[in-house]
Amino acid sequence: MSKIIIEGQKELSGEINISGAKNSAVALLPASVLCKSKSVIYNVPEISDISYLIEIMEFLGCKIENKNGGLFIDTTELRNEPIPENLSVQMRASYYFMGALLARFGKVEISFPGGCNIGARPIDIHIKGFEKLGATVEIIKNRYIITAKKLKGTKIYFDFPSVGATINIMLAASGAEGTTIIENAAMEPEIVNVASFLINMGINVRGAGTKTIEIDGYKEPDNGVVDVFPDRIESGTYIIIGALLGKDLRIKGIIKEHIGALLMKLDEIGIKYQIDGDVLTISKCEDLKPVNIKTQVFPGFPTDLQQPITTLLTQIKGVSTIEETLYENRFKNTYDLNRMGAITNILTLNKLEVKGPRKLKGTKVITTDLRGGASLLIAGLIAEGVTEIEQCEYILRGYSNIIEKLSNVGAKIDFFE
Ligand code: UD1
Questions:
Q1: The pLDDT of residue 417
Q2: Which pLDDT score, from 0 to 100, does residue 1 have?
Q3: Cβ–Cβ < 8 Å for 255, 219
Q4: Fewer beta carbons within 10 angstroms: which end of the chain, N or C?
Q5: Do the beta carbons of residue 236 and residue 265 sit within 8 Å?
Q6: Ligand 1: which residue has its CA nearest to atom 11?
Q7: pTM above 0.70, yes or no
Q8: Taking CA 210 as the corner, what is the angle to CA 120 and CA 220, rounded to the nearest 5 degrees?
Q9: Which ligand 1 atom is nearest residue 188's CA?
Q10: Closest Cα to residue 337, out of 361, 316, 321?
Q11: What would the pLDDT profile of 375-413 be if each residue is shown by its tens digit?
């Protein structure tokens, strides 16, 4: 079993480069199958979710070459095969093939997507959207068979601004006749990144990044080119690490508008940083104040940074709280944080209190999900002694070259296969 071993309490200085956003890239790769022949995606992160998506795309007949900093994708020989379960369950984002293949072929067959076990995570909003566009959805055991003789543009109101559903319906609507209007759409930067790719391949998309998105169906999308935005969650994770251990640590590739809610909370806590262009410089801070955090959809505080920031809160004098409004089961990291010396209490299903400051001690811990893994990794970096993180595959799903990036700025961290 692979593990990460960290010897804690090392000061970190130098520069960390932020990679392309996982949640953009995992949508952009499936979106590329809308193209009739060629597309290029630059700045794709080196994470295991991308390797699995490439496996699915090669299974479907795509030719993919990694050169000159980009993934060059040729879909000329794309076949509409049912996507086998052993591939689709590897990650949640495999569900984007639903929208993309439905648009391209009018049919898709795929098993229920996988992903981190952080709550129920239904996909009913996606399914209702496909049906509104004129598709028929059959669920046999955990296989989805979605068919449409013809997709027709329509107005769709989402019960909740789901990131996945917004992107999936944008993809499906690209193959529909006429205009689709999505109301109460998600506004996350990943939506804008996907929209820019669709626009680049010839599809008319208006309003991405707002609550109302319009997509005109288009028959011949091709030659899409896109740069994956820098990862706002990876940025936030390294900023949190910098606030705990940095000595003029430079984090390069910041888009400050994408991390506004995090920066506001850091200001409230009393953390000092400077932003110059796309570089944020940060050093270890003292005299921090406790805060209350509530996770929300963008531009609110992102649920994906809730677990990483919990570790920072353990170092602050007083009682901080976290209210998790998106997922029912996203405090699993606190079990091992407490074993390392933290005091966190789950007050209700979605409310956590964190009492600090606490000295953390290295020990053996187990990762249960991607961002929970990041929270334990940060704990290992600040803890006295050695921390051994088991099941660290979760962390590698979402953090590109994390061992190398942290080692380069002075962390004592190793990966063992
Ligand atoms: C995406 C991100 C994930 C992030 C989340 C929220 C990817 C691959 N993953 O996940 O890292 O934590 O956004 O920012 O981009 N919901 C339903 N029905 C649906 C769809 C969603 O009830 O059909 C619920 C979910 O259970 C969850 C909430 O809506 O409680 C948010 O889900 P959604 O925005 O869809 O997140 P994902 O796209 O799964």
A1: 86
A2: 78
A3: no
A4: C
A5: no
A6: 304
A7: yes
A8: 90
A9: 14
A10: 361
A11: 999 999 999 999 999 999 999 989 999 999 999 999 999
Judging by DSSP bridges, how do beta strands 364-366 and 386-390 pair with one another? parallel
CA of 304 to the centre of ligand 1 (A): 11
CA 402 to chain centre: 15
> CA 65, 68, 71, 72 torsion: positive or negative?
negative
pLDDT value at 285 more than 80: yes
Q: How many whole angstroms from 150 Cα to the centroid of ligand 1?
A: 28
218 lines ligand 1 (CB under 6 A): no
- pLDDT for residue 20: 98
Spacing, Cα 164 to ligand 1 middle (Å): 6
Phi-psi region of 139 (alpha: psi -120 to 50; beta: other; left: phi over 0): beta
pLDDT tens across 317-364, in order?
999 999 999 998 899 999 999 999 999 999 998 999 999 999 999 999
For residue 384, the 8-state DSSP code is B
232 CB within 6 A, ligand 1 = no
Confidence band for 121, pLDDT divided at 50, 70 and 90: confident
Atom number in ligand 1 closest to CA 164: 38
Report the candidate in 189, 184, 144, 130 with the shortest Cα–Cα distance to residue 162.
Answer: 184
Atom of ligand 1 nearest to the CA of 49: 8
Q: Is the CB of 123 under 6 A from ligand 1?
A: yes
Region of 124 on the Ramachandran plot (φ > 0 left; ψ -120 to 50 alpha; else beta): alpha
**Binding site membership of 304 for ligand 1 (Cβ less than 6 Å):** yes
Catalytically active residues, by annotation: 116
Contact in structure between 266 and 251 (CB atoms under 8 Å)? no
CA-to-CA distance for 34 and 101, rounded, in angstroms?
Answer: 7
Report d(CA 417, CA 413) in Å as an integer. Answer: 14
**Atom 26 (ligand 1): residue with closest C-alpha?**
121
**Which of the listed residues 130, 228, 326 should we mutate to test ligand 1's pocket, taking the one with most ligand atoms within 8 A of CB?**
326
Averaged pLDDT, 183-197:
98
Ligand 1 site-directed mutation target among 24, 124, 128, 162, most atoms within 8 Å of CB? 162
Residues 235-259 have pLDDT tens digits of 999 999 999 999 999 999 999 999 9
